[in-house]
Amino acid sequence: MDSYSQIITPATPILVVIAIDQSGSMQQPFENCSMIVSKSEIASILASSIIEELISRSSHRDKSRHYFDLSVVGYARNSVYPLLCDSHQPVPAIIYEDNRPEIEKRTIEYISKDNHLQLVTEAYYEWIKPKAAGPTAMLEMLDCVIDIVGDWCENRQNYDSFPPIVINITDGLDEMEYTALHSYKSECIKQCGTKHGKTLFFNVCIDSCPQSERLYFPSAKDVPATHAAAMLAKMSSPLPPMFNPLHRLYNGKTLSQPPYLALCYNQAILDMVPMLNIAPKLPEE
Questions:
Q1: What is the pLDDT of residues 7-19, one digit of tens each?
Q2: No. of helices (H) and no. of strands (E), the chain
Q3: What does pTM read for this prediction?
């Protein structure tokens, strides 16, 4: 248990669940270098990029493979709803290969390895449309993810798979303070798992902040109780050692000690996409 060493194959696919906050607070502006876009637009770019990455990686040497089970949900107005199909239940990501949406162009911010900001125009498939309305439904989202991950892990054919990855994209603004229910439900998610480890629960917080407050895979000591992402830090998984190089890469010479948290607070948020190359490995064919 907790080896996180399994290779992804069609016989042992991995579950990826993406939960997207689409509450009213996500319509607030997100200051991104010299441009300002809404938080919901950033969430759309990030989610769409991850979805496209999973679909592209399922096309291996001109042959489509069932490497990823995918479930994408939005949450707002006290409800959770599917965003890619008619059900919360995971489906093979490769089924979307021939049903791509129109290509969109966006100018987005990157933070280079030497800590410089770069504005880059990129074309991407807009799998998820920006949306923001109503109150947050964080607890309802956690309940839904518990069901999705629990059902998948209880399926005997997934017992030998790499454990699920859950990515929650939000601005972290909930009507309620962090409560025992938030703790209990997030722990339920993190305790589900397979033979090779427990579910990895990532929280990606989109919220305008000074450079000094940005976080990328911090240790728990790096997140003060007063920090805007403190609630999400408590909900996030501790990271397996394989992720430690990413902490060093994006946090410079001043290093905290592991374990690190599966938390990203505005620091190179689109690097959540190449992050997928660090953990689950595809077979060399």
A1: 888 999 999 999 9
A2: 6, 16
A3: 0.90
